[in-house]
């Protein structure tokens, strides 16, 4: 048997924090052979990224590494800084999660890719440019001749990730570390990037260490899988085996954390709560003095009915206008077209006219870190709406309702004295739900409420939303790019692309038998057929 | 992050009674030794400047005909020496501290109140209102400072208030720009949007959400403003537009001291030490306040 390319043996990483040492990775061992793909799976905080950065020795100085990291027979844990620099980008390359920030915005992409070649291969000038062109073509950048002189802002997210891949591949590395390479991308783009990686692996015979939280991708992409939790390896084996017969409870929990089930339908004659006719939202992208302003229409004539008690799912990729539509439905954005809430025509209502209605239509946003003011306590955050809409309440009554709302979202009422930064993502999302719920709304706009959360947390939040809908007869508009979640939650679904509705109908019929090519493409890319 | 459903998992501080941000900030500030020492030092300094001149045997303009430009000595009770005109330096420095500290306090408060509100409103309203408000700031910037002071002097007459007014009128401009920048980035955050969705009034959004969240850079800037103001005042006085003899200020004393630096270094060192200590303390206190007001630092 040949020795594996990368062999990690009893790796342990401790961080010396001012508050005391914290163990991020504990006794992790695995190995990858040439041409192999190993997936490191885990939720946030599981230590998977720390493990991969330890291989590159990119950890901050307060980290202490023990154990062995053998790369092609050489122990990287002991290697000198100079030797590591030689290896980085040359034999071992990384692709990071965030393509938007991992390129220098002030340099043309050609130059950034060429930098690697210059450093490790001593190539420059024409030779480097030829090689860069070749690489850009290999990673599927259209019109590479022209694009080589583009700046990062001129490229889409998927294209930027391709440039990052080109950079990583420039020196034909033997090991590629892909740290959540597709998490920030749309599902269709994600599928293309994975296809590209697989193709390049075949061509170069490199090993890939693939780090992800998405089990669907693992099944598609990796031969072997290691599941991590709290810095420990809980299970490892071939992908097929682990998926077919998970041995560890945690793995089983992760696998079952795929949302499933269906929402019981509402009565067909349930009254209409929200009606939108031919909604249009325009943004002025550039003001001109002597000509018509440049205008971008983000939502282009959407008609939508929401019955009381219903959940309407809106799916689409980034830039499809789904969030804009959601905000326009709440009149947080100005729109054209008719909009009715119950019997009131609210199209054209301004802030003051909307204010009395605000307690009845509420919203939960995507980012649990951005949607709570860091300087207010949880209690203050939740009671803010009460102060606006029920100023007659005294302190004790406000307090009582805050406690009730916190209990509704299964948080300890004592937590109202604390600040948002002390809570995890899932808990913050519960606080955001409590803030909406305390007003006893009829209608709740959920704008990607689970996208920033780990799978297992996602499931609990979704269960909570279903429970609350049942308890209070809530009506939801649920915006998401995650088809599996939408399927589990909604009665009807609306597929959006470029500001228009591509397909619309009862959830089951759309999922079972998508009529439009775009919907089919979305579903194939999202691997929904596997998850169901 | 894994067990959010487990709501009561972590309630180590849940028993802490409901504390307002102010009280909790005070508690955190007290834990910061450097900031507390600075606070005490500033208190002592202020008290000395206010009360000191009454307790000392020499008056502000009283000349000791036996002691022209003597170094610090116990003879004749000139603890920190006298200046070239035989006036007691400690007395003059403490008197000067009254002017310098009050100018610093007033000008900083003016810049804080006007600048923060103005900047937050401009940034929050955006669009045409923002353009108009910020163009006004630009116009104020482009006015030559001296011209403004002379103009005010014509209006107000020669008066100590003039310094407050002139410096206050200029200092809030920077603050307004800083706060506007903060506001522009904050107002896109989702918690502001959530406040809109709750139907919170604009004024409440500015006061409750925007201003508290821009407090970090504001405090840092305040600690930079104070020395600037003190030096600006001495510059005005030097040109004859500020405090006039026999009144004095730290800036004036320092500039007098500079001219006598070779023969009588204490005339520079004494007021300079007072100023330096004050500024040091303000910096430490500023850092401490910034951390104390941020709930994320425990």
TrEMBL record, chain A:
Question: What protein family does this chain belong to?
Answer: Belongs to the ABC transporter superfamily.
How does the record say this protein sits in the membrane? Peripheral membrane protein
Question: Which keywords annotate this record?
Answer: ATP-binding, Cell membrane, Membrane, Nucleotide-binding, Transport
Q: What is its main location?
A: membrane
Q: Report the Pfam families cross-referenced here.
A: ABC_tran, oligo_HPY
Task: Name one process (GO BP) from the record.
Answer: peptide transport
Q: Which GO terms describe its molecular function?
A: ATP binding; ATP hydrolysis activity
**ABC transporter domain location:** 6-255, 274-523
Under PANTHER family, the record lists: DIPEPTIDE TRANSPORT ATP-BINDING PROTEIN DPPD, OLIGOPEPTIDE TRANSPORT ATP-BINDING PROTEIN APPD
Where it sits in the cell: the answer is: Cell inner membrane
Top EC category: translocase
GO cellular component terms?
A: plasma membrane
Q: Which residues form a coiled coil?
A: none
The record's EC number reads 7.4.2.9
Catalyses:
a dipeptide(out) + ATP + H2O = a dipeptide(in) + ADP + phosphate + H(+)
Q: What is this protein called?
A: ABC-type dipeptide transporter
Automatic annotation (TrEMBL), chain B:
- Locations listed in the record: Cell inner membrane; Cell membrane
Recorded topology in the membrane: Multi-pass membrane protein
Q: Which UniProt keywords apply?
A: Cell inner membrane, Cell membrane, Membrane, Peptide transport, Protein transport, Transmembrane, Transmembrane helix, Transport
Tell me the domain of life.
Answer: Bacteria
The yes or no answer to whether the keyword Transmembrane is present is yes
Read off the InterPro entries from this record.
BP-dependent_transpt_permease (IPR050366), MetI-like (IPR000515), MetI-like_sf (IPR035906), OppC_N (IPR025966)
Task: For this entry, list what GO says about its biological process.
Answer: peptide transport; protein transport; transmembrane transport
One Pfam match, by short name?
A: BPD_transp_1
**Any transmembrane segments, and where?**
34-56, 99-124, 136-155, 161-179, 218-243, 263-286
Q: Which residues form the ABC transmembrane type-1 domain?
A: 97-286
Record-linked SUPFAM superfamilies: MetI-like
> Which cellular components does GO assign to this protein?
plasma membrane
Which PROSITE patterns does this one have?
A: ABC_TM1
| Family per similarity comment | Belongs to the binding-protein-dependent transport system permease family. OppBC subfamily.
Protein name according to UniProt? Oligopeptide transport system permease protein OppC
Q: Which organism is it from?
A: Halomonas halmophila
């Amino acid at each position: 048997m040949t020795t594996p390319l990368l062999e990690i043996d009893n790796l342990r990483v401790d961080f010396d924090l001012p508050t005391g040492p914290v163990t991020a990775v504990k006794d992790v061992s695995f190995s990858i052979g040439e041409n192999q793909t190993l997936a490191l799976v885990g939720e946030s905080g599981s230590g998977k990224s720390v493990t991969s950065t330890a291989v590159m020795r990119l950890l901050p100085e307060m980290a202490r590494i023990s154990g062995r990291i053998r790369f092609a027979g050489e122990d990287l844990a002991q290697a000198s800084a100079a030797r590591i620099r030689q290896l980085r980008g040359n034999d071992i390359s990384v692709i990071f999660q965030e393509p938007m920030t991992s390129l220098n915005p002030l340099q043309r992409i050609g130059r950034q890719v060429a930098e690697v070649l210059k450093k490790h291969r001593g190539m420059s000038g024409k030779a480097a440019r030829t090689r860069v062109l070749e690489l850009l073509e290999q990673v599927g950048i259209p019109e590479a001749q022209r694009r080589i002189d583009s700046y990062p802002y001129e490229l889409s997210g998927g294209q930027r990730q391709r440039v990052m891949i080109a950079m990583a591949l420039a020196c034909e590395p033997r090991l590629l570390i892909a740290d959540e390479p597709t998490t920030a991308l749309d599902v269709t783009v994600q599928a293309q990037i994975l296809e590209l990686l697989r193709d390049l692996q075949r061509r170069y015979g490199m090993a890939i260490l693939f780090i992800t939280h998405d089990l669907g991708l693992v099944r598609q992409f990796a031969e072997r899988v290691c599941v991590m939790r709290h810095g420990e390896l809980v299970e490892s084996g071939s992908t097929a085996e682990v998926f077919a017969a998970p041995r560890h409870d945690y793995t089983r929990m992760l696998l079952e954390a795929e949302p499933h089930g269906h929402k019981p339908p509402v009565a067909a004659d349930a009254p209409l709560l929200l009606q939108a006719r031919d909604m249009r939202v325009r943004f002025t992208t550039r003001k001109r003095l002597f000509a018509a302003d440049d205008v971008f229409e983000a939502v282009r004539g959407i008609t939508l009915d929401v019955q009381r008690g219903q959940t309407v799912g809106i799916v689409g990729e980034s830039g499809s206008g789904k969030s804009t539509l959601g905000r326009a439905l709440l009149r947080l954005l100005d729109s054209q077209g008719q909009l009715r809430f119950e019997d009131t025509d609210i199209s054209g209502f301004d802030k003051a006219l909307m204010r009395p209605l605000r307690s009845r239509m509420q919203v939960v946003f995507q980012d649990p870190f951005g949607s709570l003011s860091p300087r207010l306590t949880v209690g203050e955050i939740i009671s803010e709406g009460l102060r606006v809409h029920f100023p007659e309440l005294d302190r004790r009554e406000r307090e009582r309702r805050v406690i009730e709302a916190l209990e509704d979202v299964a948080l300890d009422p004592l937590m109202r004295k604390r600040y948002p930064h002390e809570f995890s993502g899932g808990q913050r999302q519960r606080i955001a739900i409590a803030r909406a719920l305390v007003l006893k709304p009829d209608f709740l706009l959920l704008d990607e409420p689970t996208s920033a959360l780990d799978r297992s947390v996602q499931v609990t939040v979704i269960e909570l939303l279903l429970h609350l809908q049942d308890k209070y007869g809530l009506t939801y508009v649920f915006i998401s790019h995650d088809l599996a979640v939408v399927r589990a939650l909604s009665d009807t679904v609306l597929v959006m692309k470029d500001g228009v509705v591509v397909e619309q109908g009862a959830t089951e019929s759309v999922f079972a038998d998508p009529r439009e090519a775009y919907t089919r493409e979305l579903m194939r890319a999202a691997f929904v057929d596997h998850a169901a | 992050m894994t067990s959010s459903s487990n709501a009561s998992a972590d309630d180590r501080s849940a028993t802490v009674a409901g504390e307002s941000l102010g009280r909790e900030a005070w508690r955190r500030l007290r834990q910061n030794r450097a900031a507390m020492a600075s606070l005490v030092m500033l208190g002592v300094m202020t008290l000395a400047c206010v009360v000191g001149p009454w307790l000392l045997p020499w008056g502000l303009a009283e000349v000791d005909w036996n002691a022209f430009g003597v170094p610090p000595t116990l003879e004749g009770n000139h603890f920190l020496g006298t200046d070239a005109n035989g006036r007691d330096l400690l007395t003059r420095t403490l008197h000067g501290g009254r002017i310098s500290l009050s100018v610093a306090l007033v000008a900083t408060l003016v810049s804080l109140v006007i600048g923060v509100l103005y900047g937050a409103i401009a940034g929050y309203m955006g669009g045409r209102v923002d353009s108009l408000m910020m163009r006004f700031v630009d116009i104020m910037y482009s006015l030559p400072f001296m011209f403004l002071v002379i103009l005010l002097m014509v209006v107000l007459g020669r008066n100590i208030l003039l310094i407050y007014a002139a410096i206050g009128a200029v200092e809030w401009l920077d603050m307004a720009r800083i706060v506007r920048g903060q506001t522009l980035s904050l107002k896109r955050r989702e918690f502001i949007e959530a406040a809109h969705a709750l139907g919170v009034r604009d004024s409440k959004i500015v006061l409750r959400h925007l201003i508290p969240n821009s407090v970090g850079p504001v405090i840092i800037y305040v600690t930079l403003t104070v020395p600037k103001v003190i030096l600006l005042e001495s510059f005005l006085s030097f040109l004859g537009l500020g405090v006039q003899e026999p009144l004095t200020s730290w800036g004036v004393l320092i500039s007098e001291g500079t001219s006598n630096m070779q023969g009588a270094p204490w005339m520079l060192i004494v007021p300079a030490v007072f100023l330096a200590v004050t500024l040091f303390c303000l910096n430490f206190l500023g850092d401490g306040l910034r951390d104390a007001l941020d709930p994320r630092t425990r």
